[in-house]
TrEMBL record:
Record's protein name: DUF6879 domain-containing protein
Annotated DUF6879 domain residues: 6-168
Pfam families registered for this protein in UniProt: DUF6879
Length: 171
């Protein structure tokens, strides 16, 4: 595939499902994470202060019937970044995502993809590449049916084992 559409465009073209897999314990520097580290918390009653275009895109997809899921494979004890992500996940859930968590020690016997990704309608993968320090490096798409099928099957096994967000306790 020659050009890589932005996430919002891929999601807008999605009809049934969008599945996100995250496996890093920290990502690039984020001002909201830094604010959380400084003790500042989200005012969940002030939706305008935390609702982002990403959340709107998810909400619109869910409203038209797209099942949006996210599963995070995390090390325990979790990093500060993961603790913050757990706190911030309320925004994802309010947008309509179903989120689960899988401690890395419970994933040792699963075959997992080598990097973070999205799977759209079981037909297309958007792969995310990061540096060792968690900085965004790039993205690529894959629509090769065998590869997509293998990744989708791996995602389902991870999803089945993972704990729903409202039941997962940060350790």
């Amino acid at each position: 595939m020659s050009s890589i559409p932005e996430f919002a465009e891929l999601l807008a073209d999605t009809v049934q499902s969008a599945a996100h897999l995250e496996m890093r314990d920290a990502y690039f520097t984020n001002p909201r994470f830094e604010a959380w580290q400084d003790g500042r918390r989200v005012d969940w009653d002030d939706r305008g202060s935390w609702w982002r275009p990403y959340h709107q895109n998810i909400a619109e997809a869910v409203a038209r019937g797209v099942h949006v899921r996210r599963v995070r494979i995390v090390s325990e004890p979790v990093t500060d970044y993961i603790a913050w992500e757990h706190y911030q996940t309320r925004a994802n859930v309010e947008a309509g995502e179903e989120v689960r968590w899988l401690p890395r020690h419970r994933a040792w016997d699963l075959l997992v993809p080598g990097t973070d990704l999205w799977i759209f309608d079981g037909r297309l993968i958007r792969v995310h590449h990061f540096s060792g320090g968690g900085e965004w490096v790039g993205k690529e798409l894959c629509d090769e049916p065998s590869t997509v099928s293998q990744h989708a099957a791996a995602y389902e096994r991870i999803w089945e084992r993972a704990t729903p967000h409202h039941q997962y306790e940060v350790k």
